[in-house]
Amino acid sequence: MDEQANAHRTHTAIVKRLKRADGHLRGIVEMIEAGRPCLDIAQQLYAVEKAIAQAKRTLIQDHLDHCLEDVVGTLSKNDRRSIDEFKDITKYL
């Protein structure tokens, strides 16, 4: 399958965010190996966890915006409401 055909508008930003999280995670490993306080490590792990969760949410929402629209096409305002609610609820993943 062609990678460009699957590229969504947010993929570049997601890759950038994940690379930053990867570097951050490597820093956490170094913190553990250096014997840094658990509170400091936990705070940094929390930050990485949030960054990855945001990347996942962005990917899912972008996929829905990109692919779901292609599948459902033009809908009446009433039918559109269900699709919009479905997309909105993904914010809570």
TrEMBL record:
<dbReference type="Pfam" id="PF02583">
    <property type="entry name" value="Trns_repr_metal"/>
</dbReference>
<protein>
    <submittedName>
        <fullName>Metal resistance protein</fullName>
    </submittedName>
</protein>
<comment type="similarity">
    <text>Belongs to the FrmR/RcnR family.</text>
</comment>
<dbReference type="GO" id="GO:0045892">
    <property type="term" value="P:negative regulation of DNA-templated transcription"/>
</dbReference>
<dbReference type="InterPro" id="IPR003735">
    <property type="entry name" value="Metal_Tscrpt_repr"/>
</dbReference>
<dbReference type="GO" id="GO:0003677">
    <property type="term" value="F:DNA binding"/>
</dbReference>
<dbReference type="GO" id="GO:0046872">
    <property type="term" value="F:metal ion binding"/>
</dbReference>
<dbReference type="InterPro" id="IPR038390">
    <property type="entry name" value="Metal_Tscrpt_repr_sf"/>
</dbReference>
